[in-house]
């Protein structure tokens, strides 16, 4: 009892836990929307292996969570589903002081000026990939965007730019990501939970080849004579020191590198695919973007990215495990539940975003994104470390794409949302027809 009140779980769907889990996995958006329509901005869900979630979509409630006491709100415990892949040292799975200490080590590589040095790399990788795409025939864009973001993250994180090592990293990472995001693997995760899943041969077999090359890179780089002069993230982390002066250990480095690779690859590729999918359905927006990129302006591309992440967030929610009872709005929630600011539902509030289902990038030119109402990267001290990197990469790749090619939809209708592991992807992978672009100045010169 707190101040004479007993903590209680808010109402939510009455379906048995297995059916709620099935709804969450197979049709998460309609499932959440129906629950909010019936129960309001605060409601509970019961998901297998995850206990009870309390979803929040009121800006004031979200602010309470993002500014709340980190000793009370454990994001690491809320992310435990990622543990079997990322490892126990991952900054995403740590809480309180261990999280803040690890976050401090990881921040320097994502400093604004240093991060922008990767712009040339991003543009080069994107241009090379776009040049390989077939012209004038249907193309599934999402795997091509995966190729771009994987190449960028490998080169930026490891500093490996050519040869057998690059090929090996690329192939093994791609294979691992494909294995761990299969529907059957996710079904096993829901059935077994993360604590038992880490012993499943399918998962350990997928991770072992990647671990071999990652540990090999760590050992090779530790002995590098030019370590201090390198700009890749692995080299910077090898030079980082804990408060007691000790360096990061091999297993610690492996877990943080895996976190950067997994979180910085799949999510950005999906966001880029959604951006193109939405632009294909809104030719006026695509034309304006192309025109402004040609003139060297970048306000509209930023607005396109923000509107894409609003309307098609890659993740549906963020999670915090409550370590003690907490009052949120009029609800006193019990310890042990997971409070979950819901990105998807927040971004569809009509009082915040008029015509919320409409793709309209101009809204972000008229009014800046709100700290607690535009939350694709979470918020507070747990806001995604790679948010600036991801936004910058999306900007560079989109600019390169509209500069070098003309795009047309390969399907007349827009693509629905499909779950892939924990991410929300285009149902058909953003099917597009790419055509050569003849720019005005090139036509005149000809």
Report on this structure.
The chain is α+β, with helices and mostly antiparallel strands and 446 residues long. The chain has 21 helices and twelve strands. Strands 1-2-8-5-3 form a five-stranded mixed β-sheet. Helix 8 (119-132) runs antiparallel to helix 9 and helix 10 (163-180) packs antiparallel against helix 13. It is globular. 39% of the residues are buried.
Tell me, briefly, the overall form. globular
Structural class based on helices, strands and sheet pairing = alpha+beta
Give the fraction of residues assigned to helices.
40-55%
Q: Report the strand count.
A: 12
Measured between the Cα atoms of the first and last residue, the distance is 80 Å
Radius of gyration based on Cα positions: 22 Å
Order of strands, main sheet, comes to 1-2-8-5-3
Mean pLDDT across every amino acid position: 90
Percent strand equals 5-15%
Largest sheet descriptor = 5 strands, mixed
Low-pLDDT sequence parts:
440-446
Number of helices: 21
Short précis:
With 446 residues, the protein is α+β, with helices and mostly antiparallel strands.
What order do the helices and strands come in, and which of them pair?
Blueprint (H helix, E strand, L loop, with lengths): L16 H10 L1 H12 L2 E6 L3 E6 L2 H8 L6 E2 H4 L4 H4 L9 H11 L5 H5 L2 H14 L5 E3 H18 L4 H18 L2 H10 L1 H4 L3 H22 L10 H7 L10 H32 L1 H12 L4 H13 L8 E3 L3 E3 L2 E3 L4 E4 L1 H4 L16 H4 L20 H18 E5 L7 E4 L2 E4 L4 E6 L3 H6 L1
Parallel strand pairs: 2-8
Antiparallel strand pairs: 1-2, 3-5, 4-12, 5-8, 6-7, 9-12, 10-11
Helix pairs in contact: 1-2, 8-9, 8-20, 9-10, 9-15, 10-13, 13-15, 15-17, 15-20, 16-17
């Amino acid at each position: 009892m707190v101040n004479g009140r007993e903590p209680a779980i808010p109402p939510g769907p009455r379906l048995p836990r297995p059916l709620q889990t099935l709804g969450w996995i197979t049709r998460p958006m309609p499932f959440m929307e129906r629950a909010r329509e019936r129960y309001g901005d605060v409601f509970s869900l019961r998901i297998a292996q995850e206990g009870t979630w309390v979803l929040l979509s009121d800006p004031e409630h979200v602010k309470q969570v993002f500014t709340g006491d980190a000793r009370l709100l454990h994001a690491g415990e809320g992310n435990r589903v990622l543990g079997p892949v990322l490892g126990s040292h991952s900054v995403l799975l740590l809480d309180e002081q261990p999280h803040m200490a690890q976050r401090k080590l990881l921040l320097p590589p994502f400093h604004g000026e240093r991060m922008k040095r990767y712009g040339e790399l991003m543009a080069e990788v994107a241009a090379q990939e776009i040049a390989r795409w077939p012209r004038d025939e249907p193309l599934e864009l999402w795997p091509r965007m995966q190729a771009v973001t994987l190449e960028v993250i490998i080169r930026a994180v490891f500093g490996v730019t050519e040869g057998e090592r690059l090929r090996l990293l690329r192939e093994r990472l791609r294979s691992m990501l494909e294995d761990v995001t299969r529907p059957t693997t996710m079904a096993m995760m829901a059935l077994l939970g993360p604590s038992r899943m880490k012993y499943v041969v399918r998962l350990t077999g997928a991770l072992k080849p990647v671990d071999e090359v990652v540990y090999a890179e760590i050992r090779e780089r530790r002995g590098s004579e030019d370590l201090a002069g390198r700009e890749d993230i692995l080299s910077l982390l090898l030079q980082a020191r804990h408060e007691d002066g000790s360096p990061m250990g091999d297993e610690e480095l492996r877990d943080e590198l895996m976190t950067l690779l997994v979180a910085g690859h799949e999510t950005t590729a999906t966001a880029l695919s959604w951006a193109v999918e939405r632009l294909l359905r809104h030719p006026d927006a695509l034309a304006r973007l192309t025109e402004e990129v040609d003139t060297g302006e970048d306000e509209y591309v930023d607005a396109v990215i923000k509107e894409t992440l609003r309307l098609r967030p890659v993740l549906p929610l963020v999670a915090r495990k409550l370590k003690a009872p907490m009052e949120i709005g009029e609800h006193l929630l019990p310890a042990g539940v997971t409070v979950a600011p819901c990105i998807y539902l927040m971004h569809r509030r009509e009082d915040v975003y008029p015509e919320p289902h409409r793709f309209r990038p101009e809204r972000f030119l008229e009014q800046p994104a709100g700290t607690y109402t535009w939350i694709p990267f979470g918020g507070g001290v747990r806001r995604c470390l790679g948010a600036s990197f991801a936004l910058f990469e999306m900007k560079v790749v989109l600019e390169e794409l509209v500069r070098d090619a003309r795009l047309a939809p390969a399907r007349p209708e827009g693509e629905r949302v499909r779950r892939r592991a924990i991410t929300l992807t285009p149902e058909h992978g953003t099917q597009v027809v790419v055509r050569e672009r003849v720019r005005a100045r090139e036509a005149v010169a000809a």
